[in-house]
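Bench notes, afternoon.
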Amino acid sequence: MYFASVLLLMLVLPVGSIYADHAYLHDTAPLIPLVGKWFVFWSAGVRLVLAGLRQFFQPRFTSEQIFGIKSDEALPIVRELGVANFATGVVGIASLAQPSFTLPVAIAAAIFYGVAGIRHAAEGGRTGNENIAMVSDLFVFLVLAAYVAVVTIG
């Protein structure tokens, strides 16, 4: 279930939305604004809202399955991470209604996913879920970082 949700929210739904939006608009404009729009919505918005809710209400999953921590001492920290993820995700979702939110959320999410992905990569003996988290985090980091670079640098 974890793999399927990550695959959908980090690749399938953003790419499908970009394709549908581009096909619907019959636009010849560059795809980068659509990449930012849909990766921020799905990967930073919906994914972080869902992760945040799960981390808040079921912190043990993140603690045990992602970080490999079996004790309950980490649960309050995981809940706080959940609140931060939820807050970022809400702004990511709101970016559809307020496009000016897209760039700031892309910057924040790129930093978050980049650091998280690097942290996972540095861990030895990763579990399957840690590998999924690492690959998806680094992939979305690269997409969002490229979007930020193109939009801000040109």
